[in-house]
Amino acid sequence: MRQAKILLRNEEAGILTQHDDGSFTFRYHDTWADSNKPSISLTFPKTHREFNGDYLFPFFYNMLPEGSNKQVVCKHHRIDADDYFGLLMVTAATDSIGAVRVIKSEMP
């Protein structure tokens, strides 16, 4: 299992988890969900605190590099081209379009 912190404007909004079976969960922190702060995306409304999926959610998948940029990042960081979660943690930590960043989280 791997986890990443999801930050919106440098404030931690929730946790994205890749489970051992390859499925994914995004969960808002209770303090974020109960506040007047915005949701991270229209596809993740705060009316639900937790979202589950068999694949990386399209919102996060669309943050990944493509083509030759993807090849360069994978080669440089020694990441398998099909490891979307690993690629997301490397690229979206510092180089993302918009207000959302993805930071690797140490397991508790």
UniProtKB/TrEMBL annotation:
Q: Which Pfam families match?
A: Couple_hipA
Which InterPro entries did the record assign? HipA_N1
Where's the HipA N-terminal subdomain domain? 5-102
Looking at the record's lineage, which domain of life comes first? Bacteria
**Can you say what this protein is called?**
HipA N-terminal domain-containing protein
Q: Which organism is it from?
A: Runella salmonicolor
